[in-house]
Design goal:
Number of helices: 8
Largest sheet: 12 strands, parallel
Distance between the termini: 42 Å
Strand content: 25-35%
Oligomer: single chain
Helix content: 10-25%
Radius of gyration: 23 Å
Shape: globular
Structural class: alpha/beta
Length: 447
């Protein structure tokens, strides 16, 4: 997006040249990426990591997708708002080199909550988080501000959405996607006229009158956003769908719905996360990671190549770098640095970076987080399904879920709709089994 230098009162060094710039540097559009979510519906996968930093597709992290969309769309100034368990996320983003966001002017900036002279508070809602970073936005004095979530898998050209915003002389543009009518009540939905102007916006209505669901992506004309955030600054847990959009409509601002019809997946639940990964390994995947014209960028570590044993069997799988595979892998997504021992069978599963599966172990329909060690002669995914005793709505879909840095001793059987987090011992498993629907969360670990 365009950059304008204006009258000076201080100096800045840019690529060895002294340029004179004002207190503000004008950008046409900047992005504010909300990446502080806890992701409680992912259970033990987000016990120690923010949802946008969860691995995806064997190589990526969820936040890679909106960041890649930004640079592919020409948006070169991105503020990433972090809060919950930010260490892995901050380390992954660094100074933005993989996304070409290591810029002297603009680039990527990590924006955690911070102590102010008048008060100190956490981000309490999506709009509150943006309000607490007014100074950051004012520094760039943009014409438009793009608001993004950090937990969706999709490819979108934000320049096309911006042109729609301009063509309609909109004050606010909401990215929407048609969803099945039976699912519409789970979203904020936009009711529009034949020109896509929004006449009403309903947040998770019991009886939806539209199936145009908000994607949590907004373009605001900067004066409109600034006014709304300041006017609503005392609103508890201020949120865009619940508070900002209704305020703008009541004020008479022009709101439009930009309809997107590409692939978009909210991976906020274990079932959706598992399904989205499994879709990547179809012969012709609905979501293509390999397109040259719209690349997905990520931080790539310098690690060795894969080793596949002559006795290994791999069928319909994504295999990351530095893996050692001696057993069988079927219909699965395997991250980098994973060890799969002799006699192992992995089926319909996701195994994240640097995990180890011991000899002769069977893994069926499991999600195994990073740095997990599973012993020899185990069997994950045995028996019939049963509702989870702790969180039936989270640990479901017949999945076995193992949290980051967990250890499972040899000879253990684990049922379906189960969750394990922590370093476990044989005594944690009565008769050597964790029955379907049960959990083991070691002291100090989150659920």
């Amino acid at each position: 997006m365009g950059l304008i230098f204006t009258h000076t009162n201080w100096h800045k060094q840019i690529k060895g040249k002294k340029l004179e710039v004002d207190d503000v540097i004008k950008k046409e559009m900047i992005a504010m990426l909300l990446a502080g979510g806890q992701g409680s519906r992912l259970g033990v996968l987000t016990a120690n990591v923010a949802k946008p930093a969860v691995s995806f597709g064997g190589k990526y992290r969820i936040i890679d997708f909106p960041l890649s969309n930004c640079i592919n769309s020409g948006v070169d100034t991105v503020g990433v708002l972090t809060q919950y368990q930010p260490l892995k996320l901050n380390t992954h983003i660094g100074i933005g080199i993989p996304w070409d966001l290591d810029r002297n002017i603009g680039g990527v900036s990590i924006l955690p909550p911070y102590e102010k002279s008048s008060n100190s508070e956490w981000y309490t809602g999506t709009a509150n988080a943006i309000y607490q970073n007014l100074e950051y936005m004012e520094y760039y004095n943009p014409e438009y501000v793009l608001i993004l979530g950090g937990d969706h898998i999709y490819k979108m050209d934000y320049e096309v959405m911006l042109q729609f915003h301009k063509d309609n002389k909109a004050d606010v543009t909401v990215a929407t996607i048609p969803v099945p009518w039976e699912d519409a009540g789970r979203f904020g939905v936009a009711i529009t006229d034949d020109k896509k102007r929004i006449s009403e916006f309903e947040e998770k209505p019991a009886n939806p009158r539209s199936n145009l669901a908000s994607m949590g992506i907004y373009i605001f004309s900067w004066p409109v956003l600034r006014d709304a955030l300041i006017k609503l600054k005392d609103q508890p847990s201020c949120d865009f769908g619940m508070h900002v959009l209704p305020y703008c409509m009541e004020k008479g601002d022009r709101l439009f719905a930009y309809e997107y019809n590409g692939y978009w997946k909210d991976v906020g639940t274990l079932a959706a996360y598992w399904e989205a990964n499994m879709e990547l390994i179809e012969l012709i995947p609905e979501f293509n990671l390999y397109e040259e014209f719209w690349k997905i960028y990520t931080k790539s570590d310098r690690i060795p190549p894969q080793f596949i044993s002559k006795d290994a069997i791999i069928d319909k799988a994504i295999i990351g770098d530095a893996c050692e595979i001696y057993g069988e892998v079927h219909n699965s997504v395997i991250g980098s640095g994973v060890y799969i021992g002799p006699g192992v069978v992995v089926r319909d599963s996701i195994i994240m970076n640097s995990s180890s599966i011991g000899d002769r172990t069977i893994v069926e329909k499991a999600v195994i987080a990073e740095n997990v060690v599973i012993g020899n002669d185990c069997h994950l995914g045995v028996g019939e399904e049963a509702p989870n005793v702790l969180k039936a709505d989270v640990y479901a879909f017949g999945l076995t879920t193992i949290g980051e840095n967990s250890v499972i001793p040899g000879g253990i059987k684990i049922g379906k709709n189960t969750a394990i987090s922590g370093v476990t011992e044989p005594g944690d498993y009565p008769n050597g089994i964790l029955e379907s629907g049960q959990v083991i969360i070691k002291a100090g670990d989150r659920q």
